């Protein structure tokens, strides 16, 4: 009888320990690189830890938190009211943690001679009022509109910051499932225009000034670049202070975490 009790205690203790060593994240493809870099760093520090990161989009991240299939949901936008209501009805208590700051650079092919646009011009391009680059100082070339898919937080942020409430993206626009996909499409298409997270801008594309301001860490922190946003990690309730989830989220506020965020190309939160 004592043996059975001790065995049961051992199994229960092992189950708790194993649960603390595992972490599952899902959601935004923008936040994904930060989450993956954090996971790799923490697993190098402690080989017993097992952290998995999926990138199914902000909307699916919110669903995963609702359905208890992830410990942390990565979103590149705030929760929608419908998502909050669904979570409230199911007893899920979402807690918002800011992981980093981001910009939404508008990108074009490197050969494009246009240096910058206004927000109004970007809106007119995406709604079909401007259809040729010559209308904004470029070459006589049809504009190929590239957008993120409508389930992504990047799309939601772009819609909120650039498009009006009732504005619709031009029919015939191309939609891609990731920021990397937008970059790839733009770098291969001379007439293309797209938008992606700051960490996805490299030499293969050209980031335009918006309202005369270039997208970079300095203009994001100073709140001068008009297309900027916060990147979030959501948990169901506030994680216990000594939990793996709390340590994972807290990494963004450490010196090493800030370095990782900068190395990837995003903007860490200023030190307090």
CATH architecture heading of the largest domain: 3-Layer(aba) Sandwich
Strand content: 15-25%
Radius of gyration: 21 Å
Task: Give the averaged pLDDT, no decimals.
Answer: 91
Class derived from helix and strand content: alpha/beta
Question: Could you please describe the fold and organization of this structure?
Answer:
This protein has 272 residues and is α/β, with parallel strands linked by helices. It folds into two domains: 135 residues, D-Maltodextrin-Binding Protein, domain 2, CATH 3.40.190; 117 residues, 3-Layer(aba) Sandwich (D-Maltodextrin-Binding Protein, domain 2), CATH 3.40.190.10. 37% of the residues lie in helices and 20% in strands. The chain is built from ten helices and twelve strands. The strands form three sheets. It has a five-stranded mixed beta sheet. A five-stranded mixed beta sheet has the order 8-7-9-5-10, sandwiched between helices. A two-stranded parallel sheet has the order 6-11. Helix 2 links the parallel strand 1 and strand 2. It is globular. The N terminus is likely disordered.
Distinctive features:
single chain; 272 residues; alpha/beta; D-Maltodextrin-Binding Protein, domain 2; 2 domains; 10 helices; 37% helix; 20% strand; disordered N terminus
């Amino acid at each position: 009888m004592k043996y059975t009790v001790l065995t049961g205690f051992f199994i229960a203790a092992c189950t708790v320990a194993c649960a603390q060593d595992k972490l599952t994240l899902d959601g935004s493809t923008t936040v994904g690189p930060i989450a993956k870099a954090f996971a790799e760093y923490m697993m190098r520090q402690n080989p017993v830890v097992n952290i998995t990161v999926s990138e199914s989009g902000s909307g699916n991240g919110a669903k995963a938190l609702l359905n208890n299939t992830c410990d942390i949901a990565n979103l590149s936008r705030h929760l929608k009211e419908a998502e909050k209501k669904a979570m409230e009805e199911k007893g899920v208590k979402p807690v918002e943690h800011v992981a980093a700051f981001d910009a939404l650079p508008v990108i074009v092919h490197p050969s494009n001679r246009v240096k910058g646009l206004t927000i109004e011009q970007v809106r007119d391009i995406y709604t079909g009022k401007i259809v040729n680059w010559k209308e904004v100082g470029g070459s006589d070339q049809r504009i190929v509109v590239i957008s993120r898919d409508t389930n992504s937080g990047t799309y939601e942020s772009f819609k909120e910051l650039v498009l009006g409430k009732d504005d619709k993206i031009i029919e015939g626009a191309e939609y891609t499932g990731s920021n990397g996909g937008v970059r790839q499409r733009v770098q291969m298409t001379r007439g293309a225009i797209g938008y992606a997270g700051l960490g996805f801008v490299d030499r293969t594309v050209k980031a335009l000034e918006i309202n005369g301001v270039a997208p970079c860490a300095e203009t994001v922190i100073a709140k001068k670049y008009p297309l900027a946003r916060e990147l979030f990690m959501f948990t169901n309730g506030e994680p216990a202070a000594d939990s793996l989830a709390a340590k994972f989220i807290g990494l963004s506020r450490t010196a090493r975490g800030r370095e990782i965020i900068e190395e990837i190309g995003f903007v860490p939160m200023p030190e307090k």
